[in-house]
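From the pipeline queue, job 12 of 40. The input is one protein chain; the requested action is below.

Action: predict structure.
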Amino acid sequence: MNRHRFFARAALIAVAALLIISQSCAQNLEAHLGFDRNEYPGDEAMATLRKQFAFVGYWLSPPPREKTTGWAGKREKLAAQGYGFVLLYAGRPGSSLKSTQAGAMAGEVDARKAVELARKEGFAEGWTIFLDIEEGGRFDDAGHAYFRAWAEGLGRGHYRPGFYCSGIAVNEDGGSKIISADDIRAHLGSIDASYWVFNDACPPSPGCVNLKEAPPPSKSGVAYAAVWQISRSPKETVAKNCSGYAKDKSCYAAVDTARKWFLDLDVANSANPSAPK
């Protein structure tokens, strides 16, 4: 074969290989848009919202400050519509954990209950359940005992632990900063867990906007995040520079032209973030 033809063909093969690798990486980085809200908006609303969203937050337990969950019994209907899921279980406030022993006991109890509810709702072993942690900043020893017991308890039940927590850097004394997700992850050590972080400050959040291309969770400021909550309703103080919110300071889907169902916007690496990997 002519040497010039050989090198030309080799160069074309190399370029083609690079294009394939590039496309594969782009697919792996593809982000999906979803939403969550404490109240189930109704079957009609979910059918409408499916036109815009790939996945939805699904409360196994009652949401914070509620006694029941309207999401119970809705898995089959939503799965039939094509929704993916992010499973949620309400965590306990730090003020209720008076000691490391109390934290560990509470984590075990909540993990057992979460596993029971997941099975009851038809989510088989291997699904990720996110513990909803509303507080931010650095956690005390009782809090970390609670998180570890939660993670270990879910593991024993053959479910994967997850944490919904702050991805916002908080100032500490001495000029240092801490992100709650980093604090939890560091204390869990080798325990494998998934992280759903909220960071609705702009930037990095794009705000309450109709996204044609969703940014990946790694852009949240927490590189290892699997899910990123980019907006919350009502609008939080940290989101003061964000656009797209309605006059009532809530975020609404683009398909909800009548603005009936306020919600939180999320992006994820998967269209079904809690599903077994």
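Job complete. The first strand starts at residue 32 and ends at 36.
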